[in-house]
Automatic annotation (TrEMBL):
<keyword id="KW-0812">Transmembrane</keyword>
<feature type="transmembrane region" description="Helical">
    <location>
        <begin position="71"/>
        <end position="88"/>
    </location>
</feature>
<dbReference type="InterPro" id="IPR007353">
    <property type="entry name" value="DUF421"/>
</dbReference>
<feature type="transmembrane region" description="Helical">
    <location>
        <begin position="46"/>
        <end position="65"/>
    </location>
</feature>
<feature type="domain" description="YetF C-terminal">
    <location>
        <begin position="94"/>
        <end position="172"/>
    </location>
</feature>
<keyword id="KW-0472">Membrane</keyword>
<keyword id="KW-1133">Transmembrane helix</keyword>
<keyword id="KW-1003">Cell membrane</keyword>
<dbReference type="Pfam" id="PF04239">
    <property type="entry name" value="DUF421"/>
</dbReference>
<feature type="transmembrane region" description="Helical">
    <location>
        <begin position="13"/>
        <end position="34"/>
    </location>
</feature>
<protein>
    <submittedName>
        <fullName>DUF421 domain-containing protein</fullName>
    </submittedName>
</protein>
<comment type="similarity">
    <text>Belongs to the UPF0702 family.</text>
</comment>
<dbReference type="InterPro" id="IPR023090">
    <property type="entry name" value="UPF0702_alpha/beta_dom_sf"/>
</dbReference>
Length: 226
């Protein structure tokens, strides 16, 4: 194996300069095109907009370092994608049904301090990922949350109970959550680790009446830190 073939191959000085120029031009065009879409940040992107960004990257990437690909055809592709984006978003503003098909709909994840039972075919997020999102919002247990909605952008909107309304809930911090077990040692309030339903349990084993699971963790009732 020749290291020069791996790192340099047939690259010459003049084409290296051309790559720099091509990259600067295409990068500037990408910034301009993205600015024209009107988006302010990555966290606002929907699935459709992510597809648009991928299209931008594909159209702009090759001309940066490929001799046989000119810049103008790539500019045509970028402008076409921008026009398509503008057209589709305009149609979406006129038709809620079209927007729903294109972007999807918000999904309730938590209601009244418990996970909403969602069909596995509709499940679009990992539980560990969602618990991490809750911890980042200074949420210690489900009993602090009245409603949580997964938005079409991937963000989660939380609506909280007041301190007076907080009730026992499933802990989301790693240490107390990892104490989950199918065997109840001491009677008290326990939360189902699958659906978050809280019950007072005084038996060694207990099946959740809501989801049918048998794994429990000690519920906690701490107030939320603001």
């Amino acid at each position: 194996m020749s290291w020069s073939e791996v790192f340099v191959k047939d690259l010459d000085f003049h084409f290296a300069i051309e790559i720099i120029v091509r990259t600067l031009i295409m990068f500037a065009l990408i910034l301009i095109i993205l600015r024209l879409t009107g988006k302010k940040g990555v966290r606002q992107l929907s699935i459709f907009e992510v597809a648009i960004i991928i299209g931008f990257g594909s159209a702009a990437g090759d001309p940066m370092f490929t001799k046989d690909i000119a810049i103008v055809p790539s500019v045509i592709v970028l402008v076409t994608i921008l026009v398509l984006y503008r057209l589709v978003t305009w149609i979406a503003t006129k038709s809620e049904r079209f927007e729903s098909v294109l972007e999807g709909e918000p999904m309730y994840i938590i209601e009244e301090g418990r996970f909403v039972l969602i069909d596995k075919a509709e499940l679009t997020f990992a539980k560990d990922e969602f618990l991490s999102e809750m911890r980042q919002q200074s949420i210690e247990h489900l009993g602090q949350v009245r409603i949580a909605v997964l938005e079409t952008t991937g963000n989660v909107s939380f609506y909280y109970y007041s301190d007076e309304e907080v009730k026992p809930g499933m802990p989301v911090l790693p240490k107390p959550y990892n104490l989950k077990s199918k065997t109840i040692g001491v009677e008290g309030d326990y939360a189902c680790t699958y659906c978050g339903d809280v019950k007072y349990i005084n038996s060694q084993t207990h099946k959740c009446e809501r989801c049918g699971r048998e794994e429990w963790v000690k519920a906690i009732v701490t107030k939320r830190l603001s």
